[in-house]
Structures are given as structure tokens and as C-alpha cells.
């Protein structure tokens, strides 16, 4: 994280504890417990889009591409005077983030504001954005291709990087925000309901 420009040593008065969260694949995710910092943080009221409104706006589209920003939050630099507030303790001293970490209560609002400002004039017509998930639409292949170019130009200008493995281009059907999107409409992604569908049928009152 130091070599990648994510964190740096800190000499400020702030410190939050770290927590290690086990992921589904067995690996461990490094997190910082910012609950105490959140208690004294002035909340940003910038709203996130309503998912149902976002999905409704996709009606009429024939072509779809989805983009995923690479470690989206980490592409947002923190104001110099606020870096020390993100500090955390380790066995090797005190460190602070140079970029926006996960766990801050205002991180989603900050990121959504950034993306909507960046894509202003394109949202609703060429694309829709929910945090680091972008969907580009089009009624014809050529219109869709032009919309992709427009979005890429904005991202390039802002020096935002994508995660190629998570991007999907020129599809007639895509998964987006837990739903399957196609020219036929919107339906829930079966992968999101699989756990409920496969839940064993109760055989006793106790079950």
C-alpha cells in the first residue's frame, strides 16, 4: 500500500484501530474501524440515486456496456489537512491514507458527487452511474459506440482507471445493480436469489 501511494506514515493526533475481515474466498480484507471518527463527522447529505429509478431509466435501450472503476475510492485523493484523520495503528507505527479509504461515512456521497459531476450531460441519455458502477446504453450499435467514446473521454480527462476484467462491452444483456438488464426489460439476477430459492424446505416446527 505504501509502494502504490495508498498510505503514508502519520505524525498526527488521530488513530483508529484496524480490523481483519475474512472474505468468502478465505483471504483477509484489511479494514479500519472508523466508528469513533464517524461519531464526530459532519454528515454529507448528497443523495445516492434510487436503484429503482435508475433501472426505470434504462427502458428502451437495446445495447449495454458496464464499467467498473478499479478500486474506485482509492482514486480519490484526500485533502492534505484531512489525511491525519484517517490514521490507523499497526505494529509498525502510525499510518494514514493519501486517498479515500472504505469505511468513512461520507465516502459514498463524495464518490457519487464526483461521478455525477464528471458525467454531467451524459447521464440519463448515454449512461447511468451508481458509485463505481457505470452502465452505458444505446438504442443502436452506432449510438452505443458513440456513447462509450463520450464516457471514456470523460474518464480519461479525470485520469480515472477501469478494472478491465469487470467491464462488459456491447452486450444485449448485462448484470447491473443486482438485476439483469436487456431490451426486454429488467428482472432480478437469479444469482442474487439463489440462496433463498435453494434454502431447504422446513420439515418441523423447530426448523
Automatic annotation (TrEMBL):
Reverse transcriptase domain boundaries: 2-181
Family matches, as InterPro entries: DNA/RNA_pol_sf, Rev_trsase/Diguanyl_cyclase, RNA-dir_DNA_polymerase, RT_dom
Keywords linked to the UniProt accession: Endonuclease, Hydrolase, Nuclease, Nucleotidyltransferase, Protease, RNA-directed DNA polymerase, Transferase
Keyword Nucleus: no
A Gene Ontology molecular function term of the record: peptidase activity
Biological-process GO terms, alphabetical: proteolysis
The UniProt record lists the keyword Hydrolase: yes
Protein name from the UniProt record: Retrovirus-related Pol polyprotein from transposon 297
Species: Araneus ventricosus
Amino acid at each position: 500500500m505504501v509502494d502504490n501511494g495508498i498510505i503514508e506514515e502519520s505524525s498526527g493526533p488521530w488513530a483508529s484501530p484496524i480490523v481483519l475481515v475474512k472474505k468468502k474466498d478465505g483471504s483477509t480484507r484489511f479494514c479500519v474501524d472508523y466508528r469513533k471518527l464517524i461519531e464526530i463527522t459532519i454528515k454529507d447529505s448528497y443523495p445516492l440515486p434510487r436503484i429503482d429509478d435508475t433501472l426505470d431509466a434504462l427502458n428502451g435501450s437495446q445495447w449495454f456496456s458496464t464499467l467498473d472503476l478499479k478500486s474506485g475510492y482509492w482514486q480519490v485523493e484526500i485533502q492534505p489537512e484531512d489525511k491525519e484523520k484517517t490514521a490507523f495503528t499497526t505494529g509498525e507505527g502510525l499510518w494514514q491514507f493519501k486517498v479515500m479509504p472504505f469505511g468513512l461515512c461520507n465516502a459514498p456521497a463524495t464518490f457519487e458527487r464526483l461521478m455525477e459531476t464528471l458525467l454531467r450531460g451524459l447521464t440519463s441519455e448515454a449512461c447511468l452511474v451508481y458509485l463505481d458502477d457505470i452502465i452505458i446504453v444505446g438504442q443502436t450499435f452506432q449510438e452505443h459506440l458513440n456513447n462509450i467514446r463520450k464516457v471514456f473521454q470523460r474518464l480519461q480527462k479525470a485520469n480515472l482507471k477501469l478494472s478491465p476484467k469487470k467491464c462488459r462491452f456491447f452486450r444485449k444483456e448485462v448484470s447491473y445493480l443486482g438485476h439483469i438488464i436487456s431490451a426486454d426489460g429488467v428482472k432480478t439476477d437469479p444469482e442474487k436469489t439463489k440462496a433463498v430459492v435453494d434454502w431447504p424446505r422446513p420439515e418441523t416446527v423447530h426448523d
